[in-house]
């Protein structure tokens, strides 16, 4: 009996391992190739009910209603993205072009002042040692200036290289738009065809999974919206106390930036702290550092609990899923892995699948 349990455990473990490897390969290597069609399917799912409403209530043919909604959807998204992109590009380019001058006017004099202060403390050393230290210090200042200029040019060059990728991006967008038109019109036909390829048991699993993922996704997005609101409030209060201009706008931008898993709030606040300290504004640097610490601590406490409460997972498991998901799949994994684990747990609890005790 004991041997039978061990054999069953090993078989289940290998089964889950194989499924995990297949899912990883699909998401990591296959998804980028079919991404336009996946996005089109999601858009079709979102616009399906509005299309049916126009068709039944306003007696507009499905084809016309579908095309109208697709055009309206992409026009709205394109308009918003264009406004945001133009503003970010113009602001970013201006800041990058001003970076060398900022270094020469603000940072370099401060570094030279620091070097001069150091020289006062080493005045008792031999002339050769003082000369060596002075030469090393000046080389350091010059090297930093060159690196700032080089970094600015590389980033501007990277933006130019992005322009060369636009043709491929436009082709992907074109395929997405065309696919979404066909899918929103024939959504029922496509989904019924796909479901017919499955056995009855697997069909029920897919339907349950779809319903659960859609509901859970909205709840998880709501949880992150709440986290973003809390982060904004913390930043706004802190910036107002420090007397920072345009505190609301700066807090909003950093709160949005905080969603990015790799950079987060620290991607803006830490360089800000360093620059403030170099310029001798130690009060501002300390204040920003305290704000950063508060934001990080509060987020790390709230995120596992809020996301976990929406997915039905323990906070520790949620935290683990968030970390592993980000490492493997970036922003997609931030939402995807916790929801996937929550889905497996839900299906297992209902008895639809049997992978956990």
Summarize the structure.
The chain is an all-alpha fold and 357 residues long. Helices cover 89% and strands 0% of the residues.
Written overview of the protein:
The chain is an all-alpha fold and 357 residues long. The chain has helices at residues 2-57, 62-121, 127-164, 166-185, 187-196, 200-242, 247-257, 266-278, 282-311, 315-329, 331-350. The chain has 2 domains: 36-197, no CATH class; 200-357, no CATH class. The chain contains 11 helices and no strands.
What is the number of helices? 11
What is the strand content?
A: under 5%
Indicate the overall shape: globular
Structural category is mainly alpha
Which descriptors would you attach to this protein?
0% strand, globular
Question: What is this structure's SSE topology?
Answer:
Elements: H1 2-57, H2 62-121, H3 127-164, H4 166-185, H5 187-196, H6 200-242, H7 247-257, H8 266-278, H9 282-311, H10 315-329, H11 331-350
